[in-house]
UniProtKB/TrEMBL annotation:
It comes from Croceivirga thetidis. It comes from the Bacteria. InterPro entries: Transl_elong_EF1A/Init_IF2_C. Keywords: GTP-binding, Nucleotide-binding. This is Translation elongation factor EFTu/EF1A C-terminal domain-containing protein.
Length: 107
């Protein structure tokens, strides 16, 4: 398991709730290394991201977790993120989770 506190390379921390199958979410759990796309309300663009969950290696549909997020395109997000900003995690066109930024890192 990755130590959440020692994962230093991150762009923001978020609380994320994974949707259940009845809500259109995944039917199976997400494993450590799961990399869905991020979608912010200020753009139609999707952003590739890596998430590290606090204290766990697997997330089940319906779970709410804290995660550190590292984006693949931080230059496109510079000065656009803020605490309280909502976003979704997507697998293609399917929204699998909803998140809210709780802490900003460095971009």
């Amino acid at each position: 398991m990755i130590d959440f506190e020692k994962f230093r390379n991150w762009h923001f921390v978020a609380t994320i709730r994974y949707r259940t199958p009845n809500e259109g979410g995944r039917k199976t759990p997400c494993e450590l290394g799961y990399n869905p796309d991020l979608k912010f309300p200020f753009t139609d663009r999707m952003f590739m991201a890596r998430q590290i969950w606090e204290g766990i290696d697997k997330v089940f549909p319906g779970d709410t977790v804290n995660a550190k997020i590292l984006t693949a395109s931080p230059n496109l997000l510079k000065n656009r993120l803020s605490i309280g900003l909502n976003f979704t995690l997507n697998e293609g066109p399917v929204i699998v989770a909803d998140g809210i930024i709780t802490k900003l890192g460095e971009i």
